[in-house]
Design brief:
Length: about 110
């Protein structure tokens, strides 16, 4: 995934495909950093898919079990939390990568 790091704002955040290489906060040029997705990121999406399967597919087979909706929602929310946490950690890793590179250059 590509992250943008702004040396002025000291912030790293996810870069969208068509977004320019300028900071969305201050408008100054940013540095682009490529970070590998973590296992927690993929695990979060897997848990979200599991939640969707529990809520919809299993509901057709067991129409008299109402608590499956609750478990499905719990899995979707838990997966979303894991994805957001992994994204924040990848942004922190992107910022740390740029800072290390800047220290080595100076």
């Amino acid at each position: 995934m590509k992250y943008k790091y702004c040396p002025e704002c000291k912030k790293a955040y996810l870069k969208s495909r068509l977004e320019k290489e300028k900071c969305i906060y201050c408008g100054k040029p940013c540095e682009i950093v490529d970070i590998k997705r973590s296992g927690r990121y993929y695990m979060g999406y897997g848990i979200m898919v599991l939640g969707a399967v529990v809520m919809f597919v299993v509901r057709f087979w067991f129409s008299d079990i109402n608590y499956l909706w609750i478990w499905g929602i719990v899995f979707v929310v838990l997966g979303a939390i894991l994805v957001m946490d992994a994204s924040n950690k990848m942004a922190a890793r992107a910022a740390e990568t740029v800072r290390k590179k800047d220290k080595e250059e100076n």
